[in-house]
Design goal:
Elements: E1 4-11, H1 18-34, E2 39-41, H2 53-59, H3 67-79, E3 82-90, E4 101-107, E5 113-118, E6 124-125, E7 134-135, E8 147-151, E9 154-158, H4 167-175, E10 180-182, H5 189-207, E11 210-213, E12 217-219, E13 225-227, E14 231-233, E15 239-242, E16 248-255, H6 257-265, H7 268-271
Parallel strand pairs: 1-2, 2-3, 9-10, 10-11
Antiparallel strand pairs: 1-16, 3-4, 4-5, 6-7, 8-9, 11-14, 12-13, 14-15
């Protein structure tokens, strides 16, 4: 019997008010569930997109007491779905480091937290071409562990946005059993136009896995513009569903057994071998 996953990605244009952000996301999550989705993924920074990091710190709590976490937990239980909130900015509760966590949270159909992942690779870049510099590590504390989670009969590997440029993370998730790789994101427009589709399709193809990428899209209240184009990609690299630049919902129903079929046809996980790193002194052994 086929293992059919009914999945959806919600694309948002989150603003400065987390309560409004939760309401907007909840409306689209309800739409996805009403259309039959049993697993729903939202973007990075689902409730709040604000460039004023001091203001963000004042608005958010810990995972145990944050209002957005509580609202999404209740919504998952009400709808009876696996609700994967792509990420929320949260206090960590650490006394030695006041930076926030950029945390992805998976809620089960009972509303309980099934898994959570803190973004490992932080967006510290200088894009040029008139684009502002980004230094996520100044206010976000990086995670240090890869995370797998079960959503019924399927297994997902969790990541966030900039992680997509580091293929070793996805290979480790695939080798550990991930059949779907999740990439909630808030890509800039220049990098999105150049790299978004290529990177997501590559992660799918090289691991023989489905990729689900819910994105932020449009002009935000903070003044930032994000690329949008949420995607669902097959293990063969086919785009099964794609959003445009504005908020909306995309859906796809797919057979999880296709992962095994693709991995049998091109067994990259089985054929991969360890190798010695290249010499740094440029000498050649004979």
């Amino acid at each position: 019997m086929a293992r059919l996953l009914k999945a959806a990605c919600v694309q948002l244009c989150s603003g400065l008010d987390p309560e409004a952000g939760v309401r907007a996301a909840s409306e689209m999550i309800r739409e996805a569930a009403a259309a039959g989705a049993r697993y729903v993924l939202t973007p990075e920074n689902t409730a709040l997109m604000d460039e004023d990091k001091a203001r963000v710190r004042a608005l958010v709590g810990t995972m145990e007491d944050d209002a957005s976490v509580a609202a999404f937990s209740a919504l998952a239980a009400e709808l009876g779905i696996f609700l994967h909130v792509g990420s929320l900015a949260l206090q960590t509760g650490r006394s030695d480091d006041d930076r926030l966590a950029n945390r992805s949270i998976l809620f089960g159909p009972d509303g309980r937290i099934r898994a959570w992942y803190d973004k490992i690779h932080l967006f510290d870049v200088q894009l040029g071409d008139g684009e502002k510099d980004y230094r996520e590590s100044a206010y976000i504390r990086p995670g240090s562990r890869a995370v797998l989670a079960d959503i019924g009969d399927a297994r997902i590997g969790m990541s966030i946005c900039y992680d997509v440029r580091f293929p070793a993370l996805y290979r480790s998730l695939a080798k550990a059993g991930a059949e779907c790789l999740t990439v909630p994101a808030a890509f800039t427009v220049p990098t999105g136009r150049a790299h978004w589709h290529v990177l997501l399709r590559a992660r799918a193809i090289e691991n023989g896995a489905f990729v689900l990428a819910a994105a932020q899209g449009g002009r935000h209240e903070s003044g930032r513009t994000t690329y949008g184009h949420s995607l669902i990609v097959s293990p063969w690299g086919e785009i099964l569903a794609e959003a445009g630049e504005e908020p909306g919902v995309i859906r796809a129903d797919f057979d999880m057994d296709r992962v095994a079929d693709v991995r049998a046809r091109i067994p990259v996980l089985r054929n991969e071998r360890e190798f010695d790193a290249p010499a740094t002194d440029r000498t050649v052994e004979r």
